[in-house]
Every structure is written in structure tokens, then in C-alpha cells.
Design goal:
The protein has about 300 residues and is an alpha/beta fold. The protein folds into 2 domains: about 80 residues, ACT domain (Alpha-Beta Plaits); about 160 residues, HAD superfamily/HAD-like (Rossmann fold), CATH 3.40.50.1000. About 40% of the residues lie in helices and about 20% in strands. It has a 7-stranded mixed sheet with strand order 6-5-4-3-7-8-9, with helices on both faces. Strands 1-2 form a two-stranded antiparallel ribbon. α1 runs antiparallel to α2. It is elongated. The chain starts with 6 loop residues before the first helix and ends in a 9-residue tail after the last helix.
């Protein structure tokens, strides 16, 4: 998957497959046609080619590393997954919110409004890289927001931008009968707003404590950390009568790895290097609607 795919990309993937004892049965283009001429604006173009291959690689880890290197060399994403009964029978997709569904870390935006932006951003980055315990870092960041007027939440909500492809992806998933959920280490106020806008079935996020119109610097209830996200994924799947193999999890931070690791399809989206290397699949070049290709859908099926 990428903004553009050429014969060079296809040849490299074919070479890697052959060198690991895999035989290519079929090659399909899942995306619409992209002009062979250099387009005036490639920011929103999408290209995806699917290879059907047979065989068992002698060294699956070496195969993955070869694909990761090729993806890096050519600025594309390469996903390698088993084409079993579950691939086309997934029914639940759960998303992280900050820097996944929206192009911001909301707690950083709140910190800017509170005048403590640099302090909080530094802690956030360390937490996303996996260098700090999430609960500890989260409480430290929220404590710095003490005294912030509640009106700042509306100000921030009005300027939040959806990630490229988010609206298309969620709309298509709903039309196809998928259940969707937000499992966020961010805040309910913003997650509920996304639920109203896009129609998510479930929302779990943190609740900011507010007294007399001011943020107290505390959160109420259980913190939604990495372990809690994985637990919630299991609970929602059970509630919907689904196996974990029928679930998809999407996130960008270290606190998303527990849910990415247990989902049938775990996708690191525009993620930090640690997360990208640890997740089963990664998308860095396209928007969220690129996930539709991983499920096996084609643009000519009516996806836009």
C-alpha cells in the first residue's frame, strides 16, 4: 500500500517472496487506477496491490524483516497475513483516539490552554515511547491541568481535526455491519463527541474531574491504560458473541500494544518505531481508510 505503486515495488515483493520459498498464485489491484503520469497532488492518492501466495516461509521473522526493509526503502506499507476464514469475517474494530482517529493528543491541547504545554508534551512523548508507566505519567499530566476553565474543552473540540480517512472508514464499517469502539487513554468529553459525529457503538475513555467549572487535576474512575484497553476488547468481543480472531485493533502508542497483540488483526497506525516494529501490521503511508484494503475490500466494491 502506498500513494503510488510501480512495477519496481511489485518486483521487489515478488523477489522477497521467492527467496523465502513462497509461490505467487495471483496479483490483484484493490485500489482504483492511479495515473502513470506524475499527479499534481499525491497527498490523497491511494494505491494497493494484493498478492496471493502459497507456502510456508522457512524463517517467518526473516521474511518480516525483509518486508519491513522493503517498505522503508520504497516508502510503502507491506502487510503479510494468513488468508484464513477470519480475515474476511471480522466484525469488531476498536480504535485508540488521540493521534489515531484525530490528529492531536488532546491532553497536549488542554495543556496549551492551561499554559503548561511544554511540560505535558514532554511527559506525553516519553509515555508514548514506552519510557514511562502510563498511569503515573497520566496522573502527572492531568495534575498540571488543575484550574483550567471547562470552556477550554469546547474551544479544543472545535479545532480538532479528524485523521485522513477516518470518516470514510467508520462509515464503510458501519454500512458493512461492523461494530466499532473507541478505547482511549484520552478523555470521555472528546470521545463522546466523536461518537456523536461518526456513530461509534462503544466508547471507553477517562473522565476529567470538574468542580465549579474548573478542572481539579484529578480523574474519576479507572484509568484506561494499555491493560484496560486489552480487557475492554475482550469484554466487547464477548458481549457481541465474537472470537478475538474476528476483531481488529488500531492504535499508535505503546499503551496500545496490549490490545494490538490480542486482536485478530492488530494495526499500528502512523505509530512510533517501537509500536510499528512490535505490531502485526502497520500503516504509515495512507489514511485510516487503508485498513479497508487489509480486510480485503476493493475500491470497485463501492469504497471511496
Amino acid at each position: 500500500m502506498g500513494r503510488r505503486i510501480s512495477a519496481l515495488h511489485i518486483a521487489r515483493v515478488a523477489e522477497i517472496a521467492a527467496s523465502h520459498g513462497l509461490n505467487i498464485d495471483n496479483i490483484n489491484r484493490l485500489s482504483g487506477r492511479v495515473s502513470l503520469e506524475t499527479p499534481s497532488n499525491t497527498e490523497r492518492t491511494k494505491a494497493c496491490v494484493e498478492f496471493s501466495v502459497r507456502g510456508i516461509p522457512a524463517d517467518a521473522s526473516a521474511l518480516r524483516q525483509a518486508f519491513l526493509q522493503a517498505a522503508s526503502d520504497y516508502e510503502v506499507d507491506i502487510a503479510f497475513q494468513q488468508d484464513d476464514i477470519y480475515r474476511r469475517n471480522r466484525r469488531l474494530v476498536v480504535f485508540d483516539m488521540d493521534s489515531t482517529l484525530i490528529e492531536a493528543e488532546v491532553i497536549d491541547e488542554l495543556a496549551k490552554e492551561a499554559g503548561v504545554g511544554d511540560q505535558v508534551a514532554e511527559i506525553t512523548e516519553a509515555a508514548m515511547r514506552g519510557e514511562l508507566d502510563f498511569n503515573e505519567s497520566f496522573r502527572k499530566r492531568v495534575a498540571l491541568l488543575k484550574g483550567l476553565d471547562v470552556s477550554a474543552l469546547d474551544t479544543i473540540a472545535a479545532r480538532l481535526k479528524l485523521t485522513e480517512g477516518a470518516e470514510t472508514l467508520v462509515g464503510q464499517l458501519k454500512a458493512l455491519g461492523f461494530k466499532t469502539a473507541i478505547l482511549s487513554g484520552g478523555f470521555n468529553y472528546f470521545a463522546k463527541g466523536l461518537q456523536q459525529k461518526l456513530g461509534f457503538d462503544y466508547v471507553y475513555a477517562n473522565e476529567l474531574d470538574i468542580v465549579d467549572g474548573k478542572v481539579t487535576g484529578e480523574v474519576t474512575g479507572e484509568i484506561v491504560n494499555g491493560e484496560r484497553k486489552a480487557q475492554l476488547l475482550r469484554e466487547i468481543a464477548q458481549r457481541e458473541g465474537l472470537k478475538l480472531e474476528q476483531t481488529i485493533a488500531v492504535g499508535d502508542g505503546a499503551n496500545d500494544l496490549p490490545m494490538l497483540s490480542i486482536a485478530g488483526l492488530g494495526i499500528a497506525f502512523r505509530a512510533k518505531p517501537l509500536v510499528r516494529e512490535s505490531a502485526k501490521q502497520a500503516i504509515s503511508t495512507l489514511g485510516l481508510d487503508g485498513i479497508l484494503y487489509l480486510i480485503g475490500f476493493r475500491d470497485r466494491d463501492g469504497l471511496h
